[in-house]
Design a protein that fits this description.
By secondary structure, this protein is mainly α. The chain contains two helices and no strands. The longest helix is centred in the middle third of the chain and has 109 residues, at 33-141. The radius of gyration is 57 Å and the shape is rod-shaped. The N and C termini lie far apart (168 Å).
Length: 144
């Protein structure tokens, strides 16, 4: 078992050294390798920065959209309130017109009643005068 562990450790060590040698070989063979790595890291940092700016603009756009939607909702509420007030004013106007019409009708009915009462009084007075005239005529004839 100890020999197996030793072989496994040796194999792992050899793989590590192979990778390290390959990396060193790449550096020696390509003198711009490290510069390329730095450029790639810089590009990645710039891409992350651009992405962060894009996310920031998206959040600002969402905030502007939310503010606009809020303003639209408030304007709709105001318009609905104004419409309700307009309908109420029209209803009040109709009620006032109805009340005025009823008032005029009551005044006309009152005038008719008064005219009928006056006519009745005039008829009674005329009957009384007629009766008086008949009595006077009858008394002048000596029939009374």
């Amino acid at each position: 078992m100890n020999q197996m562990d030793h072989l496994l450790n040796a194999e792992l060590r050899n793989q590590f050294l192979d990778r390290l040698n390959l990396a060193n070989w790449n550096r020696r063979m390509d003198p711009g390798f490290e510069e390329t790595l730095l450029e790639a890291e810089e590009k990645q940092a710039q891409a992350q920065k651009r992405h962060a700016e894009w996310v920031k603009r998206q959040k600002e756009a969402e905030k502007i959209a939310r503010d606009a939607e809020k303003a639209i909702r408030e304007a709709r509420k105001k318009a609905e309130k104004a419409e309700a007030q307009k309908r109420h004013a029209e209803w009040v106007k109709r009620q006032n017109e109805k009340f005025e019409a009823e008032k005029i009708a009551r005044a006309a009915e009152k005038a008719i009643r008064e005219a009928r009462n006056k006519a009745e009084k005039a008829r009674k007075k005329a009957n009384t005068d007629l009766n008086k005239a008949n009595r006077i005529r009858l008394s002048s004839l000596g029939l009374h």
